[in-house]
Amino acid sequence: MIQHFSYKPLFENSQIPGWSVSFFFKNERFTADYYKDGSIRFIGNAPQQDELANVEKMVHELMLFHVYE
Do residues 34 and 7 lie in contact, with contact meaning Cβ atoms separated by under 8 Å? Predict the structure, then answer.
């Protein structure tokens, strides 16, 4: 489960879609860039390969709830 999820715009012009996201997963902090096409680019560490699809799904759901509501 993702905890302490936060996001902020990537660009000063908020009309340009893109967000920086950060969260904790299994007691490890992750940061990533989330783009308007739904792609996620992790900065630094990424979740383990066997958990990556599940983590990306949770990030998509959170972004839909917070940004695209």
Answer: yes
What distances in angstroms separate CA 62 from CA 13, 50, 57, 59, one per listed residue? 22, 20, 9, 5
Q: What is the 3-state secondary structure (H, E, C) of the chain?
A: CEEEEEEEECCCCCCCCCEEEEEEECCEEEEEEECCCCCEEEECCCCCHHHHHHHHHHHHHHHHHHCCC
Residue 68: its pLDDT value, please? 66
Could you read off the pLDDT of 15-66 as tens digits, one per residue? 678 899 999 999 999 999 999 898 999 999 999 999 999 999 999 999 988 7
- How far apart CA 32 and CA 22 sit, in angstroms, is 6
How many C-beta neighbours within 10 Å does residue 14 have?
10
